[in-house]
Write a structure and sequence with these properties.
Layout: E1 2-6, H1 17-25, E2 29-33, H2 42-57, E3 62-67, H3 69-77, E4 88-92, H4 100-105, H5 109-121, H6 125-130, E5 138-143, H7 165-169, E6 177-179, H8 190-205
Parallel strand pairs: 1-2, 1-3, 3-4, 4-5, 5-6
Helix pairs in contact: 2-3
Length: about 210
């Protein structure tokens, strides 16, 4: 199957390269989409992603894999892909509601400079609540490798160091799949790659 991989905020397409290579070994064709929150605003990036996906979809069935902000981008373009929807979506540590971390840093000048409009949108409850909910098969992965306890900003709530499991779940209908990973490195998890590969095989066999 054709697969488009979209990295998270503050990362580059290289962060998805290991997952891409693992899926290629399983016989899939992968493409990496890159963007920069520092250098572009949300809507132009959204339009670029739609065109990118449309080129991939013209060659056959495809799936979308996103990490963090990449998942937000995927959800935002689903209504623009009605003529050729993805066969499946895979969300790695997605912020599924306006998250505490984004709200905390929203007024920080350095954060505003580096993460631009996209970083601000992650703290915008109206924007996050309006994102389309996927109707196609979707698997959502939440990390549980973050700190818990008295010194943790999450207390005893399972988290990946950036997002709590609840912030990953948000309004998404499917239960999240828990992985012993931290937010920044969940895409490197062999367990995640194996689960995606297994799910893709099931989707292909059912068509």
């Amino acid at each position: 199957m054709n697969i488009v991989l979209i990295h998270g905020m503050g990362r580059t397409p290289l962060s998805m390269l290991m997952l891409s290579q693992r899926l290629r070994k399983e016989g899939h064709s992968t493409r990496l989409f890159g963007y920069s929150p520092t250098l572009e605003t949300f809507e132009p990036c959204q339009h670029r992603l739609v065109r990118f996906i449309q080129r991939v979809s013209a060659t056959g069935p495809y799936a979308l894999i996103g990490h963090s902000l990449g998942c937000v981008l995927i959800r935002s373009v689903l209504t623009h892909l009605q003529q050729q929807l993805p066969s499946a979506c895979f969300f790695l540590a997605p912020p599924s509601q306006a998250c505490k971390a984004a709200k905390f840093f929203a007024d920080n000048p350095l954060y505003r400079l580096l993460m631009g409009e996209m970083g601000q949108l992650l703290a915008n409850e109206t924007f996050m609540e309006a994102l389309p909910v996927p109707t196609m098969p979707t698997r959502v992965y939440a990390g549980t490798g973050g700190p818990i306890g008295k010194l943790s900003p999450f207390g005893d709530i399972p988290n990946d160091g950036i997002l709590s499991v609840g912030e990953v779940q948000g309004a998404l209908p499917n239960p999240v799949i828990l992985m012993p990973s931290v937010h920044t490195f969940i895409m490197y998890s062999r367990q995640v790659a194996d689960d995606i590969a297994h799910a893709l095989t099931g989707f292909e066999n059912s068509t």
